[in-house]
Design goal:
Length: 308
């Protein structure tokens, strides 16, 4: 058995998506795969997690009976996800007996493209359990990352009274060759960022409405300059909400264009757009010490690849 889950990036709506704001998100060409075969350990699940070069960074022999117990704080993320899957689908504990499962992450872990959300999606696909319910119990994120994991196109996502809802959309920025994703050379823990935001007592209803309008405007915008303006306005709103300095002010003041944070502020990737020649723009960031620069279309998944 073979399963695949896509990575994710949140173009708009970070943080405020938790308060119901409309968010624009994209699945990435980089994801995680799971290969399940008959193993040699008759009574247990032999799990291995590897990086894209085949190096094993996690290996466990898991007894099915262990997964029938309640989730404990000391459990690893893997065990928590498996336990929740078994609770939702009790027969899954028997199904994994004697299996070997190899999960292969298709991107560096510090890229922040969703090593946790892709894991949830993979185990949900294997077990038949609801990925959103697993995610809510184990990680508590908005769920946009789970939606991206199984989407082959960008999505508009929001949380309403009944929970997460989303639609697949056709989205491509105007002049996409003039946009790129730049890694900030550090990883931001989105769970910590979410917890910090939720601990605040402020309700940003006005700002959530503005961000929703920007998300929708980005989707339909076909003018390059207007698109950059929308990204800039989004950063201004979120700078007020978070009371944090926007990334362009902190790191890229001399950049001739717009730089927008994606997801949790402070790490992982940012989206940059400029009317300078693409190669020149990429080189500008590399000269500042940011070596991981990906053209927009090299990162974002816009249709289902052949063979998937």
């Amino acid at each position: 058995m073979h399963f695949h889950a896509n990575g994710k990036l949140l173009i708009s709506g970070e943080y405020l998506v938790l308060d119901g704001a409309l968010a624009l998100a994209v699945p990435t060409r980089f994801g995680q795969n799971l290969q399940v075969t008959e193993g040699k350990d008759g009574g247990s699940l032999h799990w291995r997690s590897t990086d894209r070069n085949g190096n094993v960074w996690l290996e466990e022999h898991i007894q099915p009976d262990e997964l029938r117990r309640s989730i404990e704080d000391a459990d690893s993320h893997l065990i928590k996800v498996l336990k929740k899957a078994v609770k939702l689908q009790p027969g899954f504990a028997d199904e994994i007996t004697g299996k070997q499962a190899i999960a292969t992450l298709g991107f560096p872990d510090n890229w922040g493209l969703g090593s946790s959300s892709t894991l949830v999606s993979l185990i949900a696909q294997w077990s038949g359990a609801d990925a959103l319910r697993i995610n809510k119990k184990v990680f508590g994120s908005s769920g946009y990352d789970i939606a991206c994991a199984q989407s082959w196109m960008p999505i508009l996502f929001r949380i309403d009274e009944e929970g997460p809802v989303w639609d697949s959309v056709h989205f491509l920025p105007p002049q996409p060759e003039h946009f790129c994703f730049v890694h900030l050379n550090q990883k931001q823990n989105s769970r910590d960022a979410i917890a910090a935001f939720r601990s605040g007592k402020n309700k940003f209803e006005k700002e959530s409405h503005i961000i929703s309008e920007i998300s929708e405007a980005l989707l339909f915008c076909d003018d390059f300059a207007d698109f950059l303006t929308l990204l800039d306005e989004h950063e201004e709103v979120m700078q007020f909400v978070l009371q944090e300095e926007r990334v362009q002010t902190a790191r890229f003041q001399k950049f001739n264009g717009v730089v927008k944070s994606l997801g949790a502020w402070g790490g992982d990737f940012v989206l940059a757009g400029s009317d300078m020649p693409p190669a020149e723009m990429h080189q500008w960031f590399k000269k500042q010490g940011y070596e991981t620069v990906l053209p927009y279309t090299d990162m974002v998944l816009m249709e289902k690849p052949e063979g998937k």
